[in-house]
Write a structure and sequence with these properties.
Layout: H1 3-18, H2 31-57, H3 62-92
Helix pairs in contact: 1-2, 2-3
């Protein structure tokens, strides 16, 4: 799998989330803003996982899939490992209270 392509996307999205926060008293994000950003990041990581699975399923033969399985598994695990802290933050901030 091309994790080399996915890694810059993830890094860019994380940078975008925290870009506007200089962490001065005037620019500290509210909990609601943090929750929205975390939710967007979780959705982005879900999309990455979905695209990886789709790419894997598009391989023509089972042999191709079998050959790609270690890389695919590694990419999925890396994505999940990025998603877990986001999910924990979402839970600890009690972000579900901002859901409509």
């Amino acid at each position: 799998m091309e994790y080399k392509i996915i890694k810059p996307i993830i890094v860019t999205s994380i940078i975008c989330i925290f870009h506007g926060y200089c962490f001065t008293k005037e620019t500290l994000p509210t909990i609601k803003e943090l929750c929205n950003n975390v939710k967007l990041e979780i959705k982005s990581l879900e999309l990455i996982k979905k695209n990886l699975k789709k790419e894997f399923k598009q391989k023509n033969t089972e042999l191709e899939q079998f050959e790609l399985l270690p890389d695919f598994t590694e990419d999925i695990n890396k994505t999940i490992n990025l998603q877990i802290p986001q999910a924990k933050l979402y839970h600890y901030l009690n972000c579900s209270r901002f859901e409509k």
